[in-house]
Amino acid sequence: MNDNRIRFLVIATILGMLLTACGSGGGGGDDNDTAGGAAETRTVTDDFGTQVTVPVAPQRVVTTHFLLTMGTLDLGVAPVGTAVWAPANVTDRYAATLADVPVVASQTAEPELEKIAAQSPDLILATSFNDEQVIGRLREIAPTYVVDVSAGGANATSWSERTSQLADVLGRTAEAGTLASAFEQRKQQLIQTHANQINGTTAAVVTGFRDDNASVFAAESGIGQIVTSLGFTYSPQATVVAAGAQNGIANVSFERITTSVGDAEVLFLGSDLNGGLSPVVTALQQTQLYRDLPAVRANRVGVFKPQVTGYTDANFALDQIEQTLTGMQG
After folding, report:
1. Model-level pTM greater than 0.90?
2. DSSP string, 154-200
3. At residue 112, does pLDDT exceed 80?
4. Could you give the domains of the chain?
5. What are the backbone angles phi and psi of residue 252, rounded to the nearest 5°?
6. H or E element in which residue 220 lies
């Protein structure tokens, strides 16, 4: 069993322990505990500026977006209603947990209110992608906390900050601390082991969401922050291309790939959690312009899931980055 596999199993064990642990961690916010036999509550303020009275230890959480589903799972909370999810973007453990959980929201349509109400939630986690009118109706069903994920570029909430935010609402700050400590330790180990491959090396991240378009990530994106925190220099070309782009991602035609990431000495391609590439990325790989990129010609290309929803994705990225750097030693 190789070192990367062992590390992945260690991280999976930590996440599994959190998912099956009983009780809840402490949280911030304004205390508003109730007396008697009623569930204890407290008041928090969501990203819409709304004060929301939530349970101290929520038991029946509904999520209306995949990134919130992954965030809650990472913190050891199994939702009773979830946004649509794909097996390739979750671990086997999470897939088993979600297998019988009703899907109450898609990525392209508003949440199904009747399905959500049928789960008797004591907390709903929504995003700024939801219409304000819909959010108002969600609040009629149960306390609803809204996370702003619409801001792009440098203004976007980072994945780690979002995890801490969810941990506070869910009463899982201790669990978040455990995850953050393990991730930081793993990251420092990688930095120390591969300093020669990282220092002074220019990197870029590219995936594909639209036909015949490469999606170039900014340094300020969630995955860009991980790459630069390791010590990589982020591609100046990619920085210019993605400047001001929504969510820190710029879509460019295949013909512009040379002027978008041609200065990268290491290139990371977007994949799912199994390392599978999308048809758009596969099509990009078939172009001569891609094959002529310096990183490709030097065989310095890695893959990881670039949409970082939480610590599962972040740790997978570290594993894949280390695999790429190990290959560069040869």
Report:
1. no
2. GGSPPHHHHHHHHHHHHT-HHHHHHHHHHHHHHHHHHHHHTHHHHTT
3. yes
4. 23-173 (3.40.50.1980), 186-328 (3.40.50.1980)
5. -130, 155
6. none
